[in-house]
Design brief:
The chain is α/β, with parallel strands linked by helices. It has 3 domains: 217 residues, FAD/NAD(P)-binding domain, CATH 3.50.50; 107 residues, FAD/NAD(P)-binding domain, CATH 3.50.50.60; 109 residues, 2-Layer Sandwich (Enolase-like, domain 1), CATH 3.30.390. The chain is built from 12 helices and 21 strands. It has a 5-stranded mixed barrel with strand order 1-2-3-4-5. A 5-stranded parallel sheet has the order 7-14-8-9-10. It has a 5-stranded antiparallel sheet with strand order 17-18-21-20-19, sandwiched between helices. Strand 12 and strand 13 form a beta hairpin. Helix 3 crosses helix 4 and helix 3 runs parallel beside helix 5.
């Protein structure tokens, strides 16, 4: 088959971070690229339902909290509490700006934007069912290569009635038109914990149901203990080691029956337990590509599907790490392989986590549990935010930073942060850990002069604290 028989060099399906990264990289290399997006606006789930909305909501409610605690303003807003619809309006303005900005990226790089739902007809052809046309018109396009970046959606178990007006998932919660007096959140992963912080800040009475014995068990134990303490201190009722038996929607609320025998009733239920890859009805089976039970596609180290090497997949649809930042890089790396026939770049081994609870959490590297399991001789350095001048000035004194480092080489092994600006602060440590020859890297923080007062000063305080523990 000749190149002339193709409409495009590359067709990307899905305009989230992974798809955007692939499309921009290929277009800047001179390839003819089309982007197929089933929704009217570009940006994917990251922009419209997941990362941007939840973080905008969290920032808005946090701003209200700060005003309420500030002696200059608290008398003026005493008794006022923001509503969930008010928060949604602030998030909508951010979403609109993000979508508009990203559409400009496609226009400037001469990438064709096609609105519709794509499915494969054969290994080089997709059929696109228009989502703009009232007549459901279709067209077929051919390409030499494809990148599937269709993302994921909330997992919906078949025995839960998501059509009921009191049952929501993390997408549909953005349509909630009131602030409920009570809510039960089923699932205490990242999404569940973030929304628990948001709703509790609005004064909503809240049950957080966790299927495990501790929150966010992939994090360092000391950090998760701190998160549990502060959520409980704010009034969140955390129920660990619980699994639902059935969910019973009623006219005036939702009753969740737990296998332990407990019955919890609340005004609404937010289901926040797992996600599924968006691979349904895309014609993969005819190509020999079989998504797993969670709708995810298996790929090789260059993000090629094993059955059809000219079809690539990136982002949430391939599973771990399911982060917007990593998805964008995966898209760029896949496009590099398409353009150059090879790609020497790989995702970095240590990817920072950013969890936007209140206070927020960020970490990179190994945890104490992992180091102990592997018999690595390590030491710990702490910096409590309440001791930092900048935290005292801003009033954000809750939190800490901990640095884990090798006792002999002083190489930094992990950094874990809980508190204001944690997701920003972590990148300083990330930069140092990524440098070649990381032995003695703790000394960087001991010998570096930090601006004063800053939150970054926590690195020097933690490093000195850890060094003083050595004997």
């Amino acid at each position: 088959m000749t190149e002339d028989s193709y409409d495009y060099d590359l067709i990307v399906i899905g305009s989230g971070p992974g798809g955007e990264g692939a499309a921009m990289k290929a277009a800047k290399a001179g390839r003819k690229v089309a982007m197929i997006e089933k929704y009217r606006q570009v940006g994917g789930g990251c922009t419209h339902w997941a990362t941007i909305p939840s973080k905008a909501l969290r920032h808005a409610v946090r701003s209200v909290d700060e005003f309420a605690k500030n002696p200059l303003f608290r008398d003026h807003i005493a008794g006022h509490r923001a509503t969930f619809p008010e928060l949604l309006r602030t998030a909508a303005s951010v979403i609109d700006r993000q979508a508009s900005m990203r559409r400009d990226f496609y226009d400037r790089n001469e990438i064709a934007l096609i609105s519709g739902r794509a499915s494969f007809v054969d290994e080089h052809t997709v059929e696109i069912l228009s989502t703009d046309s009232p007549n459901s018109q279709t067209q077929r396009l051919r390409a030499a290569t494809f990148v599937v970046a269709t993302g994921s959606r909330p997992y919906r178990p078949p025995n839960v009635d998501f059509s009921h007006p009191r049952i929501f998932d993390s997408d549909t919660i953005l349509t909630l038109d009131h602030t409920p007096p009570t809510i039960t959140i089923y699932g205490a992963g990242v999404v569940g914990c973030e929304y628990a912080s948001i709703f509790r800040s609005l004064g909503v009475k809240l049950n957080l149901i966790n299927q495990r014995d501790r929150l966010l068990s992939f994090l360092d134990d000391e950090i998760t203990d701190a998160l549990s303490y502060h959520l409980r201190d704010r009034g969140v009722l955390i129920r660990n080691n619980e699994t639902y038996d059935r969910i019973e929607p009623e006219d005036d609320g939702v009753v969740i029956h737990l296998k332990s025998g407990k019955r919890l009733k609340s005004d609404i239920l937010l289901w926040a337990n797992g996600r599924s890859g968006n691979t349904q009805d895309m014609g993969f089976e005819a190509l020999g590509i079989t998504p797993n039970s969670r709708g995810q596609i298996e790929v090789d180290e260059d993000y090629r599907t094993r059955e059809q090497p000219h079809i690539y997949a990136v982002g949430d649809v391939v599973g771990y790490p399911s982060l917007a930042s990593a998805s964008y890089d995966q898209g760029r790396f896949a496009a590099t392989h398409i353009v150059d026939g090879e790609c020497d770049h790989r995702l970095v081994e240590d990817i920072p986590t950013g969890i936007y609870t209140n206070p927020e959490i960020s970490s990179i590297g190994r945890t104490e549990r992992e180091l102990t399991r592997d018999s690595v001789p390590y030491e710990v350095g702490h910096a409590l935010f309440r001791s930092l001048a900048r935290a005292q000035i801003t009033g954000q004194t809750v939190g800490m930073m901990k640095i884990l480092f090798h006792r002999d080489s002083l190489a930094i092994l992990g950094i874990h942060c809980f508190g204001d600006q944690a997701a920003e602060i972590i990148h300083i440590g990330q930069a140092i850990m990524a440098q070649p020859g990381t032995a003695n890297s703790l000394q960087y923080f001991i010998n570096t002069t930090f601006n004063y007062p800053t939150m970054a000063e926590a690195y020097r305080v933690a490093a000195l604290n850890g060094l003083n523990r050595l004997c």
